[in-house]
Model the fold of this input.
Amino acid sequence: MSRQFVVQVTNKPGQMALLAEQMADAGVDLRAIGGGGLGEVGHFIMTTADDDRARQVLEDGGWTFLEGESLLAEVDDKPGGMARIARELSDAGVNVLGHLFLGRWSDRATFAFIVDDPDKARPILERR
Done:
């Protein structure tokens, strides 16, 4: 199963360029990447074609990051679709550490989630 990485950054210009350049220099293909920032802290969430090499780049670069199993889920692509799945995860005591939007097909949207308890989350996410 592929991994997903959440990388904490200082919320300033150049952080995405630096991370992407380091990954590129190591030959790591970024499959999906998202992120955001608020105040002084930002983050990137990504999946790669080479998790071992990506982890090494992050460690060698001194990045603060966490990684976990990337759990795929389809969500109803209508108002309340994400709310329902988020509530089910919350009610099960699962904390969402990050998620990536992967695409939309017909009436469904596909996301990759990283959570603190994949074993609890898997039955919720996989039954979508």
Summary: The first strand starts at residue 3 and ends at 10. Strands lie at 3-10, 30-38, 41-48, 64-69, 71-76, 96-105, 108-115. Residues 15-25 form the longest helix (11 residues). Helices lie at 15-25, 51-60, 81-91, 118-126.
